[in-house]
Amino acid sequence: MNDHYTVKAFGAASKDDDLKEIIIDRRSLQRKDIEIDILYCGVCHSDLHTARNDWGGTKYPAVPGHEIVGKITRVGADVTSFKVGDLAGVGCLVDSCRECESCKQDLEQYCLNGSTGTYNGKDQYLNQQTFGGYSEKIIVDEDFVLRIPENLDLQAVAPLLCAGITTWSPLKHWNVKEGSKVAVVGLGGLGHMAIKLAKGLGAEVTLISRSPDKIQDALDLGADSVVISTYENEMKAAAGKFDLIIDTVPYDHDINPYIATLNISGTLVLVGFIGKMDDALFTPPMILGRRSVAGSVIGGIKETQEMLDFCGEHHIVSEVEMIKMQDINKAYERMLKSDIRYRFVIDMQSLKK
Ligand code: NAP
Ligand code: ZN
Ligand code: ZN
Description:
alpha/beta, 6-stranded mixed beta sheet, 6-stranded parallel beta sheet, globular, binds NADP nicotinamide-adenine-dinucleotide phosphate
């Protein structure tokens, strides 16, 4: 194995194990690398999917965490854009080929040679899986490190690195602007950021949720209206209304009722569930109304920086509940019950003691 050092982390040894404190390797600082002392790390539903191997392909031990903010403690000899002491963010990507058509267009998330995930990717230096932000420190190439607006509350910034960019990217790609009619399905970590960001762009925003007890929260977050998906009359009243729907539901669900709420030429973008839907797609709305069903994954580095800067200008951050690293397993159980308003963030000091 190449040169490395060790840090404390929290990881799962198998899909059936709770996360526990473990020791992991970090590669030694390369010339373009930055070492970040992790202060806060958000808890994404993808962390849970990965720890429990919901998508298959998880390598163990698995150390999740891709909503990372911290302070730079060391920089390699060729680093030009950051210095020791700067705040820094790391999202879902730590590398890509940088040469393919996607990378050339700042779409590293769609790298044709496979981008490197912050966790469960492949660390080329150490020839092992990458380990995420549930750890004391991380080493990342400067090209994949984000600048954090200084005016925002640092712990509430962390979730922007995944929940923020994952909802921002489709809002921008589908050209959401003043007056666009946007619906967000599911009020969780991604959903609440989608509401804030769509409002920031001037859209008229509706939450579609299973949970009547979240109506007031959604309005407080800026939504203009709420549709409860299990109330047939409310879904009927929303028919043909939306230009864009961002569907954040993590598990298999019937999307046909949501498609019925799209306007002519509208698009439903899946960002949550990855897998085969049991309910077949009912095609008339697409054929007779030029509607689309699409998907989207996170966002590129340039776009992530644009989102962070936008959040700095518009004072947009996540609603967070702070937890200790040792409480992560309880947090996962609560996340499965949607009992979090709206993002857990780990205070990494708890791991360093
Ligand atoms: P989350 O905080 O758990 O929120 C998910 C929300 O979906 C819940 O609050 C709930 O909202 C709704 N929901 C949950 N289970 C449901 C079910 N069985 N049927 C219908 N609605 C349900 O999760 P998150 O962190 O926002 O992540 C959401 C999904 O996006 C996860 O699958 C995650 O892996 C994925 N993700 C994708 C990307 C990407 O790049 N595409 C990036 C990050 C995360 P209501 O109570 O309002 O209905
Ligand atoms: Zn995520
Ligand atoms: Zn590439």
